[in-house]
Write a structure and sequence with these properties.
2 strands; 8 helices; mainly alpha; MetI-like fold
């Protein structure tokens, strides 16, 4: 192992980690609220809405995330003949945008089932008590039910968030220069396994930070424990 290359390797991996963190952050930003919306659709009394949402969840959970990323990226061209090469939003090209869309749609399906389980676990008495106290349905949901649901589903959400950190490496399929892509290139050019080990340390530290942060948040939510 060439220790002289260690610091340059870490610097380049850190640059790739910027894209990794971007994928992670944007996915959570979009997937969490979308998952909550999908969960409501899944529980809808409208059979058409609930059936469509069931199909969406089944497809997202039943097909590989890598395949979904490829469909999001190549779909606009093959289906609608829309060239995506020149699509940019600020500093982000369509490769990065497609990655975030694919990850968000996929993780929203998983979050939706977690949220649905949390919402359906709430006792009916909670709703009845809120109605007696004069709360509207919206007030009941956002002020009484949702805070308790968040508390109940935090451990499951934490598991998915930790998985998301590792899954960001799948962005390599769209040639997004996230950390794992950089590690592969460095390992090939250096003919060394050191970049992979360094990348593994990066992923481990990132997940350790996520786990500690989520555990602290979970303790804050456990105000009656």
């Amino acid at each position: 192992m060439n220790t002289e290359l260690l610091w340059p390797t870490i610097k380049q991996l850190w640059q790739g980690f910027g894209y990794t963190f971007g994928i992670f952050g944007f996915t959570l930003l979009f997937a969490l609220p979308l998952g909550l919306l999908v969960a409501r659709g899944r529980m809808s009394k409208n059979i058409v809405v609930s059936s469509l949402v069931r199909i969406y969840i089944s497809i997202m959970r039943g097909t590989p995330l890598m395949l979904q990323l490829l469909l999001v990226y190549f779909g606009p061209y093959y289906l609608f003949k829309v060239s995506t090469g020149n699509i940019n939003i600020g500093p982000f090209n369509y490769r990065f945008i497609a990655t975030v869309i694919g990850f968000s749609l996929n993780y929203a399906a998983y979050f939706a089932e977690i949220f649905r389980g949390g919402i359906q676990s709430m006792p009916v008495g909670q709703y009845e008590a809120a109605q007696v106290l004069g709360f509207s349905k919206m007030q009941t949901y956002f002020k009484i039910i949702l805070p308790q649901v968040v508390k109940r589903v935090l451990p499951s959400v934490t598991n998915e968030v930790i998985t998301l950190v590792k899954d960001t490496s799948l962005a390599q399929v769209l040639a997004v220069t996230e950390m794992f892509t950089v590690a592969k290139e460095l390992a090939s050019s250096q003919v060394s396994v050191m970049p992979f080990i360094a990348a593994g340390v990066f992923y481990y530290i990132a997940n350790a930070i996520v786990e500690v942060s989520m555990n602290r948040f979970e303790k804050k939510m456990s105000y009656y424990s």
